[in-house]
Every structure is written in C-alpha cells, then in structure tokens.
Amino acid sequence: xxxxxxxxxxxxxxxxxxxxxxxxxxxxxxxxxxxxxxxxxxxxxxxxxxxxxxxxxxxxxxxxxxxxxxxxxxxxxxxxxxxxxxxxxxxxxxxxxxxxxxxxxxxxxxxxxxxxxxxxxxxxxxxxxxxxxxxxxxxxxxxxxxxxxxxxxxxxxxxxxxxxxxxxxxxxxxxxxxxxxxxxxxxxxxxxxxxxxxxxxxxxxxxxxxxxxxxxxxxxxxxxxxxxxxxxxxxxxxxxxxxxxxxxxxxxxxxxxxxxxxxxxxxxxxxxxxxxxxxxxxxxxxxxxxxxxxxxxxxxxxxxxxxxxxxxxxxxxxxxxxxxxxxxxxxxxxxxxxxxxxxxxxx
Amino acid sequence: xxxxxxxxxxxxxxxxxxxxxxxxxxxxxxxxxxxxxxxxxxxxxxxxxxxxxxxxxxxxxxxxxxxxxxxxxxxxxxxxxxxxxxxxxxxxxxxxxxxxxxxxxxxxxxxxxxxxxxxxxxxxxxxxxxxxxxxxxxxxxxxxxxxxxxxxxxxxxxxxxxxxxxxxxxxxxxxxxxxxxxxxxxxxxxxxxxxxxxxxxxxxxxxxxxxxxxxxxxxxxxxxxxxxxxxxxxxxxxxxxxxxxxxxxxxxxxxxxxxxxxxxxxxxxxxxxxxxxxxxxxxxxxxxxxxxxxxxxxxxxxxxxxxxxxxxxxxxxxxxxxxxxxxxxxxxxxxxxxxxxxxxxxx
Amino acid sequence: xxxxxxxxxxxxxxxxxxxxxxxxxxxxxxxxxxxxxxxxxxxxxxxxxxxxxxxxxxxxxxxxxxxxxxxxxxxxxxxxxxxxxxxxxxxxxxxxxxxxxxxxxxxxxxxxxxxxxxxxxxxxxxxxxxxxxxxxxxxxxxxxxxxxxxxxxxxxxxxxxxxxxxxxxxxxxxxxxxxxxxxxxxxxxxxxxxxxxxxxxxxxxxxxxxxxxxxxxxxxxxxxxxxxxxxxxxxxxxxxxxxxxxxxxxxxxxxxxxxxxxxxxxxxxxxxxxxxxxxxxxxxxxxxxxxxxxxxxxxxxxxxxxxxxxxxxxxxxxxxxxxxxxxxxxxxxxxxxxxxxxxxxxx
Lengths: 347, 347, 347
Fold this sequence. Notes:
flat; 10-stranded parallel sheet; homotrimer; 9-stranded parallel sheet; UDP N-Acetylglucosamine Acyltransferase, domain 1; 4 helices; 37 strands; alpha/beta
C-alpha cells in the first residue's frame, strides 16, 4: 500500500496527515530498530528520535517539527501514535482466531443456548443454561459455568473461567487464565474462626470490556460487581466483591481494588496501584504507579504515593524526605548556635 | 420464610436477635440498593445508613440504635453482619456444583484411588497414585499430579493445578487457576549463572483452608510449605518455598510472602502486603494494606507502612512527612532569626 | 551413598569439601527439623544454627567454623548451599514427568511439526504450524497457539498458554498457569474511548529461561518482548509489551515491569518490585523488596524504596523519617528559645 493511500485512511479516521517525500509502498509496520525494507515505522516519544538515524524503515510517521535525516519519506501527523494505529489496523488487522466451529470435543451442556456461528474449541466447557450470543469464540480450557450470560462477539482466550450466573456484554474480550466471578473473601468471624458467607451475587462486565491475562474479578456477596462499558484491564488485576467500576477506565497491570469500591468513568490507575475498600474514586481520576489509595478521591484529581495524596504534594514530600538528613543537620547547627547565644547572654 | 422464623435460626446460632414490626415473609437477601419486594437487606457499616431511605427491601437487619424510616420491619441484632450471614445461608445456601460423577472424559490414572461419591468433570486429570477422599469435586481443567493426597469434601474449581506429592486436608476449597506446589525460586549461583536446585519438598494445606483464584503456593525445597487449618486466602497471593502459615489466618488479595517465613495463628494481612524472607510473624498480628514487612513482628502487633512499623508510628511519620515542607520553612525562618540575633550581638 | 562419595561429587563440581567424622550412608536430603535417620541436612544461614542441636539428621553440610554438637558427621564446605545443592541433585534429581508419549487425547493440529520423543498429554492443544523441538513435555491444559516455535527440551506445566507466533529457546521451563504473549495494554485514546491497537509483535524467551506460575509476559505491539538466556522468574510476574530483559536475571514473585523497558544482564529484582515504562536498568542492578523504580538505574547500582533511590540514601531517609516527630519537637523547642532570646534583647 502506498503512503498516500494509507494517509487517506488516516484522514478518513479524522486525523490531519500528509505525505512528505517519495510515495513509497509499505507492507507492514515495525519499530525503528526492527523495521525492514518494506516497513513503515514511527516516532511519538522524543526519547526515540535518535533511532531515526539508523532505521532501515521505508518510511516513518512523525509529529510536527520532526524531520528525519537522509530524506526518509514521512507521513506527518500531529498525533503520530494515532496515525500509526490506523496503519497497523490497515496493514495487519486484528488476530484471526482458529476456526473450530462447534468442536465435537467441546463439553457443551444440552441446556446451553449458543447463538449463530459459534466457535468453541475442543476442551472448552459450556455448562448448563448458559446463553451465548452470535459470533463468540471460546478457546480450549475455558469453563463457562451454569447460567452465565454472554453477549455477541465475545472472545474467551484459553483457560478463562467464568463462574456461575455472571454476565458479559457484547464484544467482551478476556485474555488467558483470567477468572470472573470467583467467591470474594467473604467470611464472618465466629469463635476466632472464619465462617464462610455464601457469595450469592454475581459479576457483570459491560460491552467492549477487555480484561488482561490472569486477572480475578470477584462476584459480589449480594448484588453485583460491575465493570463498565469500554473499560480495559492489564494483567494480574484483582477486583474485590461488590466493587463497581465505571465506563472507559484503564487499569494497568497488578492493580488491586478492594471490595465495595465505587470508581467513576475515565479513571486511570497505573501499575501496582492499590485501592482500599468502601472508597469512592471520582470520574477522571488518575493515580500514578504504586499509589496506595486509602481515602476517597475527588473527580479529576491526580494522586501519587502511599498513602496517595495529590501528586504535587506527593512530589514535594518526596523531595523534602530526600533532603531530610541535610535539614536535620541544619537543626543541629541551629541548636548549637542558639546555645552559644544563650551562653553569651549569660543564661 | 417469615422474619420470626429467620430470627429463631439466628438465635439458634448464638446471636441475640429480635423482630420489630410486621412479621413479613422474605425469600432472599440483597443489598439495600438492589433489594426487591421479597428481599431482606441489612446495614452494618454506618456509611450506608442513608440508603435505608430509598430501599425497596421487605425488611432489614440493623444494629442497636438504628431505626429505619417508614416503619420498615427489622431484625435487630448487635452484630448485623453475623445475623445476615445466617440469613444468607438459610435462604440461599452455598453453591451447588454440577454433578458429573466420574466423567468418562476425565483423565484418571488407573493407580489413583478415589473415595466415595467422586465428582470429577471431563477434562480434569487425576494422575498416578493420587489418593482422594470422599465427596470431592474436581472441575474441568484441574491437574492433580502424581502422588498428591486429598482429604474428604474438597473442591477444586476449574484449572487448579496441584503439583506432585502435595497434600490437602479435609474440606479444602481452591478457586480457579490457583497453583499449589510449583517449584520455588531455588537456584544456586554458579559462574554468574543460576543453577537449578531440585525442589524435592512439598506443600501441605490443612483442613478447611480456602484459597482464592490464581494464587501460587510454592512447594518447599526440602521439607514442606504449610498452610494452617482454617486459613483463608484472597486472590493472586504468592507464598514462597518453605514458609509456614498458622491456623485461621486471613490474607487479602495480592499478598506476597517470601520463603522460609513463619507466620503465627489468626494473622491478618491486608491487600498487597509483602513479607520478606526468613522472618517470624507472631500470632494475631495485623498488617494494614500495602505494608512491607522487613523484620520480625511481635505477637498481637498492628503494623503499617513500608518498611512496616507499628501503626501509630507509621501514622505519625506519615503526617509529619506531609507537613515536612512547612517544617522546612520554619527551619529557614529560624536560621534567619538566629542570624539576626547574632548580628545584633556583634558576632 | 556414603558421605565420602557425595563429597567426591562436590569436588568434581568445583567445590572444596571434606568429610569430618563417621563416613555414614545417606539416602536423602532434608531440613534440620524434618530430617530422619538416613538424611543429610545443612546449615547455611546462621539463623538456623540452633536447630543443629535437635536435628535427627545422619550428617550435615556446614560452612567454615561451624561444628555441630554430639559428634555429628559433617561435610565441610565454604559454600554449604552449593554443596547441598549437589547432594540434592545426586540423591534426588529433578522431577520425572509422567510419560504420555503423544497422547491420542491431545489436540494436535495436522500442520504442527513435533520433534523426536514428544511427551504431550491428553487435554493439551498444539495449534497450526507450531514447531516443537525434541524431548519436549507439554502437560494437560496447555495451549500452544498458531505458529509458535519451541526449542528442544522444553517443559510446559499444566495450563500454560503461549499466544500465536511466540518463540521459546531450548530447555525453557514454564510453570503452571503462566501466559506468554498475550496482548499488552495497547490502546489509543479516541473520543474519550480506548481504541485497540492490534498487537502484532511477539514474545521471545531465550534458552534456559524458567518462568514461575501464573506469570504474564506481554507480546510486543511491534517487534518483540524479550527474556534473555538463563533468566529465572518467580510467580505472578508481569512483563509489559516491548520490554527487553537481559540474560541471567533473577526476578522474585510479583515483580511488575511496564512496557518498553530495557533491563541489562544479571539484574536481581526482589519481590513486588515495580519498574515504570520506557526506563533503562543497567547490568548487575539489584533492587530490594518493593522498590518502585521510576527512573533509569546505573549498572551495578543497588536501589530501594518507592520511588527507588540508592540503598544507603533510602535507609538514611527512612531512619530520618522515623525520627521526624522528634526533630519537629526540636524545631518547636528552638522556636521557643529564639523567641525568648529575642525578648531578652528587647525586640
């Protein structure tokens, strides 16, 4: 595909993009380091500008103000990341799943109701009274328990487990090994032992949710745990029972949210963030890596640290802490000087 | 079931409970927000008192001093959480597993010895010389390796893996995707490479242990890793090789305990707590969320922070740290004033 | 086997070792506490010297300067940990896998090419165009996706998932439930929604890599995520897309490394360490437990804390922080004294 054709698709997608230099044919997209002769590459992070010197790419997508050496052809776009995303979709597309149809080695309960065009592998289990929409793919080793409801166009990668009576919207994708709707840590103390409370709620995932690998999302004790439409999770994320996450959130790997938390829309939690139970996190909140959120967070706030505080305060405290030994020295100096003054004044 | 009948069961369970208002029939338990016409609900956390105003529940369980508006019938109990637990058990009960018997699509080694009433799904594997007690349920995708010993009444949810020669007591429940007895990180450095030490020990789980989803419990290098009777784990918990955890502990999600640690009884570790290797944690210790325990902890202590210190000290340090920029300003002010005094005294 | 024979093997392995006392026969290796009559045990950590008093071991491996009571026979070696490793290998060896050959209940795609002596269990799936070297073991529930390339002598424990087109070197071991090559968190923001970027790269694991249980290693968006030869991972570790880890690293449980990070050789990350995206970590770096690495780290540095700083600075700051309330008191005292001096001077 010629750069000009790709550029046209970018423009169709609402981006302002122009070709500069030779209108080359590109066949794929790759990093600056790994690109071969027919590859388009890109620079969005200024950290990688230097690699422009040595790339073997046929062309690069760059932002405003960047001009590669050697007259390398470019597609210029103010948002090179968005532009190259378009190029990847056009030139490569999304993963094509193996086509099993309804494998005769899958374990499908006779009371399960599957929609049109099912793609269920051997070694997958669909239990009693499950309903599943059209065009769903279920990889080997998945277990979809009794009474689960799955929408249209969902993909369960290998070894995903959905506990009984949980609900998935349309176009939900769950990566390998994730577990949805397991019992939360619901025990009542009784005579210094832990008495198990039946976990009779469920977990409900909205439309267009994507969950990474080896995550665990508790069912609610009562009612439901909710993951809002369009929300995306990285890997190894834990969501506690009864927690409700809003739409279009982004949670990075190893985030842990305790139970009964309410999280708004468009919330970004960076890697290893933890959120204590029963809190309310407002719309648009952003928490930096490893933030430990132990109180409610106002909409739009950016927090950092453990316990998490507004990011400017967290940084100020951190820098002050780093200089603390020096300040302690200055306190000692002051004490000496004050003692000297006192002596001089005959105290 | 009438409120008075439910109340009677609560009393049988050792709770002091009384009905106030109409002796309604309830058919289920739900949250204040989600409760429908026949549902019993409850308030134990004062944070949720407000929701009493708008609930559609037929009745609520409340603690002392709480009176809902509109003459809503109540069951009053000093411990509403315990009372509603009883109600959930009576009205809903625990999960009923699918009944597979001994599926002819399970992989059962001829030398495995299964107790009475086995419930083993297609796609589960029971390897050589396994012994399994009566009334055990093994979901699809589980792998029970050579020589594992499982007690009576155990449940392995889908895709649980028990490595060779590990031991489970009676009534052990392991949620989906958890792995018991994998090799720990046992390597000896040799010529700047890592030489693998055979991990010949095992992991042993006591009676009534419940393990969350996607946890990993290392086998010991030598001897055994132990999880005490009645101990309960959340999800994504890591236990290192040779660590011994006492009875009736509660570990919340994403806790990580390194190897060769000794943990007492009734220890509570909140979410994302980490414990370094070779430590001793006394009976009854409680560690707050994200605590990083890097030294032995005395029995009964409550710790917080990373590195973890007694909770009062952790809080004091945290508040002092937050005010540190202000204290630095006050040091600067003092320096100015002392300089002025010195000048005045002709130094 | 006699102590003298074992000792000879240790010497063959390059260790200086000598027998002192009776040349007993030993049949196994165990901890001091668990050792029975025929067992060899060892002390490498001085913390456990006391247990020498009460052990029932037949003999012990000890370091220089340690002499057990009661004339217990010993193998003395400056590095007792290395010596006992040799003993464990000799007396116990490594795990013997069940022998399935090529199970007729495995799901093997006709286009997959398997090397000599395959050992593939029932319930394992080898998808289209996979190539697998000689002497590989694949446990039940594993899913090896389209186009994956696996070297010789690899072991995939149960329920391991390798996404399409990923590459494993020779003698790679992956423990149960780990996922290699899942899509990373690659989304472009578009109209306040997250637009999925096809993840067309792959993950490549070098020779002699060992990965713990329930880890997740993202494929790259473009190009490849890399794990260097001889690198070993604990459990529940997350590696982000496009990250490149050098050879012979050791990562302890629950480590999380974000995307596009470059990690050198011989890097040790202790438990729960987090590394932010796009950083460079030099050769030989060591990060203490829970370190939060938010900037590049020089080769050979040892860091601690969150954000991570050189270990001496981290410790100094921590101790200063613990004493901070006391220093604040001293500032208040100074303020009082200076005020008194000012008054005295008639200001």
